[in-house]
């Protein structure tokens, strides 16, 4: 299978033992790819794509809706620069994933353009790098609910504010339409879709009664 390095590191690999126990006769070969993809390579059975789900000729199953939320180390919640509301972002370094676009959208939706400077802070090429920078107290990351879940569950990251961005994109499991129900592909689809479904309710706490801003 192929997927992004960050999704592999932050989500798939920590859960893969569950598949190995359920299907000991199937060995998974994981190929991490940095580029955006719109079709399966000849040597790939299944993949995780990120987008709006419109890839002609492929079976697509949405794994998770995506919410972008600010996260930081618990250590940043105390001290002279406490994070109590979004305006307090002006006191901290912003950590960016690939570009400054997400933070720009977040600040714009909250009408804080004149308060928070999104043109500061380092830019990382992978989500996993942004998350690790946040874990080590280097600033505030705006990351998605799926990537950050393990770190939040472990207490290494916290969500300082309730405001989140709801993305039009999502993570999808994709495979060739005519192979979706065959052997090892069907087994992996059944496992990963079940895994995602069991966790989706836990991720839903983000939208709850909180203020939500939609990425346009």
UniProtKB/TrEMBL annotation:
The keyword Transcription applies. Keywords: DNA-binding, Transcription, Transcription regulation. InterPro entries: LysR-type_TF_proteobact-type (IPR058163), LysR_subst-bd (IPR005119). Residues 2-195 form the LysR substrate-binding domain. Pfam families: LysR_substrate (PF03466). GO terms for molecular function: DNA-binding transcription factor activity; sequence-specific DNA binding. Belongs to the LysR transcriptional regulatory family. This is Gcv operon activator. The lineage of its organism: Bacteria, Pseudomonadati, Pseudomonadota, Gammaproteobacteria, Enterobacterales. The gene is gcvA_3.
């Amino acid at each position: 299978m192929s997927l992004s390095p960050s999704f592999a590191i932050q989500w798939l690999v920590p859960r893969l033992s569950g598949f190995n126990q359920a299907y000991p006769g199937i060995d998974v070969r994981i190929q991490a790819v940095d580029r955006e993809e719109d079709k399966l390579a000849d040597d790939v059975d299944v993949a995780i794509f990120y987008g709006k789900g419109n890839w002609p000729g492929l079976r697509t199953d949405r794994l998770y809706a995506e919410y972008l939320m600010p996260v930081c180390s618990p250590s940043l919640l105390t001290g002279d620069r406490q994070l109590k509301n979004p305006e307090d972002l002006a006191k901290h370094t912003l950590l960016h994933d690939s570009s400054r676009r997400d933070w720009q959208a977040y600040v714009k939706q909250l009408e804080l353009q004149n308060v928070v400077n999104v043109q500061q802070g380092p830019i990382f090429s992978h989500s996993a790098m942004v998350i690790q920078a946040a874990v080590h107290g280097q600033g505030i990351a705006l990351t998605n609910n799926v990537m950050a879940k393990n770190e939040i569950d472990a207490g290494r990251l916290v969500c300082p504010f309730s405001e989140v961005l709801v993305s039009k994109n999502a993570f999808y499991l994709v495979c060739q339409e005519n192979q979706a129900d065959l052997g090892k592909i069907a087994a992996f689809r059944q496992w990963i879709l079940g895994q995602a479904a069991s966790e989706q309710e836990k991720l839903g706490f983000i939208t709850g009664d909180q203020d939500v801003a939609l990425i346009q």
